[in-house]
Amino acid sequence: MSVFDGIPFFAGLDPSRGETFGRQCIRKRFSESELVLDFDDPSTDVYFIVSGDVRVLIRTAAGKEMILGDFGPGNFFGEMAAIDGAKRSANVTALTNAELLLVPPTAFREIVLHSPEIAERLMRLLTSRVRELNVRLFERSVLDLRHRLYAELLRMASPRKGHDGQSIVSPPPFQHDLAARIGCRREQVSRELGAMTEEGLAEKVRGGLVLLRPNVLEKRVRDAMNAAE
């Protein structure tokens, strides 16, 4: 059995190569809230999430933080440093107890360069991440706070089972986390969530924040984007 078994990114990896490169990798456990990586860290391993969840964020020189995303099992991070050798550009912290597979940069590059299937998978993932960052950058440039919040909640939400036309963010997001995602203060998020509740656009329930009319939020974000153009 290979250390890569069960990790979607490595699907299709030749078993013999998996056994060879697997001997270079290690699995490491992290406790909830434990630092996994920090800014300017010189390490270049790629981290694959076997279990648990982590949070990736960036920080300005003044100390202001922006959450880039939360990642769970099957996801990975740290590939940029493995490719270009530069220092880490983000902070990664365990949100829960987590187990990660650390793949050295040489092994990662060898696997990718000798498997067209895996190389295409990496290119598609990197392209997806660039597209998402471009969208968020554009939102930060042209949308006001209210519409940035709408857009972020829509990204975080998934369809609510048993309630057609509704979405839910579960578990319910902390207001300070939402603020760190869209670049504002917690008090501003609290005010906007209150307005959404009064307007019948959102409702707090046990286990989540329900978006009662996500189609309305989508239209408002779209209209705001068009107006900015």
Summarize the structure.
The protein has about 230 residues and is α+β, with helices and mostly antiparallel strands. The protein has helices at about 15-20, 80-85, 105-115, 115-140, 145-155, 175-180, 185-200, 215-229; strands spanning about 25-30, 35, 45-50, 55-60, 65-70, 75, 90-95, 100-105, 160, 165-170, 200-205, 210. The protein has eight helices and twelve strands.
The secondary-structure element order is HEEEEEEHEEHHHEEHHEEH
**What portion of the residues fall into strands of 2 or more residues?**
15-25%
Q: Name the poorly predicted regions.
A: none
Main β sheet profile: 4 strands, antiparallel
> In order across it, which strands form the biggest sheet?
1-8-3-6
Rounded average pLDDT: 94
Shape: elongated
Q: Can you count the helices?
A: 8
Number of strands: 12
> What structural category do the secondary elements indicate?
alpha+beta
First-to-last CA distance: 54 Å
Helix content: 40-55%
User: What Rg do the Cα atoms give?
Assistant: 20 Å
Describe the structure.
The chain has 229 residues and is an alpha+beta fold. The chain contains eight helices and twelve strands. Strand 9 (158-159) and strand 10 form a beta hairpin. The longest helix is centred in the middle third of the chain and has 27 residues, at 116-142.
